[in-house]
UniProtKB/TrEMBL annotation:
The keyword S-adenosyl-L-methionine applies. It holds the Pfam family Methyltransf_2. Signal peptide: none annotated. Residues 105-306 form the O-methyltransferase C-terminal domain. Keywords: Methyltransferase, S-adenosyl-L-methionine, Transferase. One of its GO terms (molecular function) is protein dimerization activity. This is Uncharacterized protein. PANTHER family: O-METHYLTRANSFERASE. InterPro entries: COMT-like, COMT_C, COMT_dimerisation, SAM-dependent_MTases_sf, WH-like_DNA-bd_sf, WH_DNA-bd_sf. SUPFAM superfamilies: S-adenosyl-L-methionine-dependent methyltransferases (SSF53335), Winged helix' DNA-binding domain (SSF46785). It comes from Citrus clementina (Clementine). The lineage of its organism: Eukaryota, Viridiplantae, Streptophyta, Embryophyta, Tracheophyta.
Length: 317
C-alpha cells in the first residue's frame, strides 16, 4: 500500500488550503471525469454550516470552499488521533442500516434492533470483525483524548489512589492520561473484553486485563468508568456497579463519567446532542439502555451500594 493510497486501493485526495469550487474538487476526486458539481456543492454548503468547510464568494457570486481546522482534523488525519474514526465508526453499514429500524425499539424493546438484524448484540458483533473492533478502539481514542483533557483540568478526585481500574477502558487512553497527570497512582488496570485488550498498545504503568464486567472486576482503590453505563439497562448497570462495589475497599470510590440528561427537553444544542445520543444507544446497543438524569444515576448508585453521588460537570461537553 502506497502512502497516498487508502486500504481499498483508492487514491487519497489532498485538499489544498486554496479555496476550490465544487467542480474543481470534483475533478480531483474523479480525475477521469463525471459527477455532478451542483449536487456536490449542495453537500459542501451543508458541511459549511457545520464548520467543516469555509465558503468564499468570488466576484460574480461563485462559491469556493476550503477546509477549516475542524475539517482538516476530520479529513486528513484518518489514521491518527482525531474525530475521524468516530465519524467512520458511526457510519459503517452495520450501524447505518439500523436507522430505518428505530421504531422496532418502540414496538418490541425485548429484542434489540441490532440483534434482530445482525443476529447478535453490537459489542460481540464488533468483536468478531477485526476491522470493526479496531475502528471502535480508534474511535474511542479519538474522542476520549480531548474529552479527558477537559475532565482532568476540572476534576481532582483521584487523591490517595494507588491502584486504579478503568472498566471498559478500550485502548487505555483514559488511564494513560490519568496516570500521566497523577504520578502518585502506581498501577493502572485497563479492563475490557479480551478481544479489545488483545490489540491495545502497551502503556507504561498500565496492565491490560481481558474479562467480562458482568462477571467480575479486578480489585482496586478506585474504579474509573467512562461511557459504559449509558449503553446498558438499569438491571445491567446495577450488576456492573455491584461488581465495582465488590472490587473496592470500604469507602472506595467509583468515578463514572457519563452523559447526564437534563430534566427538561429544552432546545439547546447540548440537550439535543444528549437526546440524540440516547436514541443512538436505543437503536444500536440496548433498546432499554439509556442516557440518564442525575436523579436516575443517584438511584442506580444507591441500589448498588453507593449511597453518595457527587456530580461534576464537564462544561465544554
Ligand atoms: C463506549 S466504549 C467506551 C470506551 C472507553 N471507556 C472510552 O471512554 O474511551 C464502551 C467499552 O465497553 C467495553 N465493554 C463492552 N462490554 C463489556 C464487558 N462485558 N466487559 C468489559 N468491557 C466491556 C467495550 O469493549 C468498549 O471498549
Amino acid at each position: 500500500m502506497e502512502d497516498n493510497e487508502c486500504r481499498d486501493g483508492r487514491k487519497k485526495v489532498r485538499l489544498a488550503n486554496t479555496p476550490l469550487s465544487a467542480s474543481q474538487i470534483l475533478t480531483r476526486i474523479l480525475p477521469s471525469g463525471g459527477g455532478d458539481a451542483e449536487n456536490l456543492q449542495r453537500i459542501l454548503r451543508l458541511l459549511t454550516s457545520y464548520g467543516v468547510f469555509s465558503e468564499h464568494r468570488e466576484f460574480g457570486g461563485k462559491r469556493m470552499y476550503s477546509l477549516t481546522e475542524i475539517g482538516k482534523s476530520l479529513v486528513t488525519d484518518v489514521e491518527g488521533l482525531s474525530y475521524a474514526p468516530y465519524v467512520l465508526q458511526h457510519h459503517q453499514d452495520a450501524l447505518m442500516s439500523m436507522w430505518p429500524l428505530v421504531h422496532k425499539a418502540i414496538l418490541d424493546p425485548t429484542i434489540e434492533p441490532f440483534l434482530k438484524v445482525h443476529g447478535e448484540p453490537a459489542y460481540s458483533y464488533y468483536g468478531k470483525i477485526p476491522e470493526m473492533n479496531g475502528l471502535m478502539r480508534k474511535a474511542m481514542s479519538g474522542v476520549s483524548v480531548p474529552f479527558m483533557t477537559s475532565v482532568l483540568e476540572g476534576y481532582n478526585g483521584f487523591k490517595g489512589v494507588k491502584r486504579l481500574v478503568d472498566v471498559g477502558g478500550s485502548a487505555g487512553d483514559c488511564l494513560r492520561m490519568i496516570l500521566q497527570k497523577h504520578r502518585f497512582i502506581c498501577e493502572g488496570i485497563n479492563f475490557d473484553l479480551p478481544e479489545v485488550v488483545a490489540e491495545a498498545p502497551s502503556i507504561p504503568g498500565v496492565t491490560h486485563i481481558g474479562g467480562d464486567m458482568f462477571k467480575s472486576i479486578p480489585a482496586a482503590d478506585a474504579i474509573f468508568m467512562k461511557w459504559v453505563l449509558t449503553t446498558w439497562t438499569d438491571d445491567e448497570c446495577k450488576l456492573i456497579m455491584e461488581n465495582c462495589y465488590k472490587a473496592l475497599p470500604a469507602g472506595g470510590k467509583l468515578i463514572a463519567c457519563e452523559p447526564v440528561l437534563p430534566d427538561d427537553s429544552n432546545e439547546s444544542q447540548r440537550t439535543r446532542a444528549l437526546l440524540e445520543g440516547d436514541i443512538f444507544v436505543m437503536t444500536i446497543y440496548r433498546a432499554k439502555g439509556n442516557h440518564r438524569t442525575e436523579q436516575e444515576f443517584k438511584q442506580l448508585g444507591f441500589f448498588a451500594g453507593f449511597p453518595h453521588l457527587r456530580l461534576y460537570r464537564v462544561l465544554d461537553y
